[in-house]
TrEMBL record:
Lineage summary: Bacteria, Pseudomonadati, Planctomycetota, Planctomycetia, Pirellulales
Keywords of the record: Disulfide bond, FAD, Flavoprotein, Oxidoreductase, Redox-active center
Domain FAD/NAD(P)-binding residues, every copy: 4-332
Species this chain originates from: Pirellulimonas nuda
Matches recorded under Pfam families: Pyr_redox_2
Domain of life: Bacteria
GO molecular function, one term: thioredoxin-disulfide reductase (NADPH) activity
InterPro entries the record matches: FAD/NAD-bd_sf, FAD/NAD-binding_dom, Ferredoxin-NADP_redctase_2, Pyr_nucl-diS_OxRdtase_2_AS
Keyword Membrane: no
Name recorded for this polypeptide: Thioredoxin reductase
EC number(s) reported in the record: 1.8.1.9
Record PROSITE patterns: PYRIDINE_REDOX_2
Length: 348
């Protein structure tokens, strides 16, 4: 028998969709992704991008405080170790994701720890094929596979992720480790300028590192960077290495000139990447309508419908603008409600 609903993805969007779908007695089956070295390198392990962050200060309902007792009581024994690791500053990314996962399972969501290798959306029921195991048929799908941040690919960059290297200024910029200290932002488009401008509210100085001698950002955004006294644009430059130590994390960056190859170092407590994101939609190419950047298109205003009837999209896989945990969770709720109503309209 085909599944009523299959959810692919396990970030805030996927788990929120699973919570709502399970409470609606849709008995959802969630493919949360596989635990592999390839996924680790790509930043696509189960629990999504939020599991790669430390403190989460901007998710409603989780102020700073000692949650260790609650974590120990709420989470299954397999994950109760999080209570011992809790740092009391507020909920951490892994803690929040495990709580969402547990909540979905409490309501009856079933979870498979595997990637989806391919799907066949040409006819219903849809066919979903995992990397391991047998294919699954489903009347309805929610795609919540998210998007991964683009990084430079430096070994030192990988070493200091969550120790000063970040791809989300809004998520991490206000943390104490960055306040009143110099920071580095890499990029030259609108997103990079937005990140630099945001960080200038907290940092003593923001070095904006750009490979060329002119920003790619729109004129209004470029002017914003040029007129911000706290933003120091390093033209014709690229980051050659992230500097730091195991004790302090990021302490600076070594920059290389793109014109003459010379190098110099700048002091910084953190480095923020703003060179774009890549949506995790490769397994869907040719099956669903996408934007030029390969994000899934919502085809009905204020709904999560995709170009194929019965397939819905939630979270960063369809959102290249907000990219926040709370907005992803919101669209996860929307997708579950859209799926529930669509299934009812089909008499399934």
């Amino acid at each position: 028998m085909p599944e009523h609903l299959v959810i692919i993805g396990s970030g805030p969007a996927g788990w929120t969709a699973a919570i709502y779908a399970a409470r609606a007695n849709l008995n959802p089956l969630v493919f949360e992704g596989a635990i592999t070295e390839e996924n680790r390198q790509d930043g696509t392990l189960p629990l999504g991008q939020l599991a790669l962050t430390t403190e989460v200060e901007n998710f409603p309902g989780f102020p700073a405080g000692d949650m260790s007792g609650y974590l120990k009581d709420a989470l299954h024994d397999d994950h109760s170790y999080l209570a011992e690791m809790h740092k009391k500053e507020g909920v951490s990314g892994p803690e929040l994701m495990h709580l969402m996962r547990q909540q979905a399972m409490n309501f009856g969501a079933r979870v498979v720890t595997d990637d989806i290798a391919k799907v066949d959306l040409s006819k219903r029921p849809f066919k979903v094929t995992p990397s391991e195991g047998d294919a699954v048929e489903a009347h309805c799908l929610i795609i919540a596979t998210g998007a991964r941040a683009n990084y430079l690919g430096l070994t030192s960059e990988q070493k200091y992720k969550n120790m000063g290297v970040s791809a989300c200024a809004v998520c991490d910029g206000a943390l104490p480790r960055f306040r009143n200290k110099p920071l580095v932002v890499v990029g030259g488009g609108d997103s990079a300028v937005e990140e630099a401008d945001y960080l200038s509210k907290f940092a003593s100085k923001v070095y904006l590192i750009h490979r060329r001698e002119e920003l790619r950002a729109s004129k209004i955004m470029a002017d914003r960077a040029l007129n911000n006294k706290k933003i120091d644009i390093q033209w014709n430059s690229e980051v050659e290495e992230v500097l730091g130590s195991d004790e302090k994390g990021v302490t600076g960056a070594r920059l290389k000139s793109t014109t003459d190859g010379s190098t110099r170092e700048v002091e910084a407590a953190g480095m923020f990447l703003a060179i774009g994101h890549t949506p995790n939609t490769r397994f869907l190419e040719g099956q669903l309508e996408m934007t030029s950047k390969k994000y899934l298109k919502w085809t009905v205003p204020f709904r999560t419908n995709t170009s194929v009837e019965g397939v819905f999209a939630a979270g960063d896989v369809a959102d290249d603008y907000y990219r926040q945990a709370v907005t992803a969770a919101g669209t996860g709720c929307m997708a579950a409600l859209d799926a529930e109503r669509w299934l009812a309209s089909e008499g399934i």
